[in-house]
Predict the 3D structure of the following.
Amino acid sequence: MTTGKRGSQRPSRRAFIGLAGAAAAGSLHPAARAQTADAIRDLGETPSDYGRPSPFEDSKRWSRAPDATASSSNTPLADLEGIVTPSGLHFERHHTGVPAIDPDTHRLTIHGLVERPLVFTMDDLVRMPSASRFHFIECSGNSAREWSPAGAPNVQMSHGLASCSEWTGVLLADLLDEVGLKAEASWIVAEGADAGLMSRSVPLERALDDVMIAYGQNGEAVRPEQGYPLRLLVPGCEGSISVKWLRRIEVAHMPSMARDETSKYTDLLPDGKARQFTLVMDAKSVITRPSGEQKLDGPGFVEIRGLAWSGRGTISRVEVSTDGGDSWVDAEIEGPRYAKAFTRFRSPWRWDGGRHVLMSRATDDTGYVQPTLAALLETRGRSTIYHNNRIKAWEVHESGEVTNAEA
Ligand code: CO
């Protein structure tokens, strides 16, 4: 089922697939048939308490951190389908580790410039009107290596500090309504229950819009690494502001100027000034297949697949280039298209066996178009590490190998 608009530039899928279908039929090896027959003869496993991926899946590709001292791990975007990131593969970024919190004793305190300061138990929160929404979370340091043309070698390392879940919880606007805002209220300051008391300030206007207090993730309780039992969720904004293990919200008349909104998570500009409270993650896309460290099997049909997202709204268009940006075609946007969520795009291509540079370019419903690295460097300079949404390029070599392209 196609919900995307049928652009006249877009190549027809059917024209590409004919030969590929014949090739697939020819590859059904007799040994593969014998193996299937063995599996059919044996009785299978009984039901499990909690399902796990097939042992045949390559666990080396999971989101494990590079070493034991790392404070982050990346989602293996190249190996995922659709728009939802499995909860166990959501990227992780902890400033002081993952606390173990008993929901029965956990409390959320809301105080400050309010009429009635209140303390909520988890039961209080679950009892309130709930909402379920698909949203991405992206670390503002995602793609930090992409400020250099050399870039990261694969999409897990270049873009994997971004994931998308269905979040369930209470709208913060409903909670603020319960406590009653005083006239001077203009910011909220959220604090986590981790050892570092991670703290970030959110403008009240945004807090009253679509911000959630989430206790559910992809149909079950939020994972410990994602803030169990309760996290703030600020859709479309840099990940660190969606404070995990949420324990306290203070309503204030100014931001708290916490460590993670002053010395960190600010953007140093060429004139020595820093951009502060640059919260929104701008429109971005990346091709996940073919992408770095993959290898094409030989010339013929290739479905170029990828993800696009925008912190300002919905993705309205994704274009794909197979010639390093000289020409572009509209990709197909198929499946759900939610605001501030991953959006899946696909584009049929026939690889001729030659060298090609593949790129994708997203546009959101505000009309904002994903920029090149050169355009970003021109406005931000070379000292900034966050908020890199450059167009990413992969190079397909004659051998079929795919590497980062210096673009
Ligand atoms: Co920022």
Q: What stands out?
A: The longest helix spans residues 13-26.
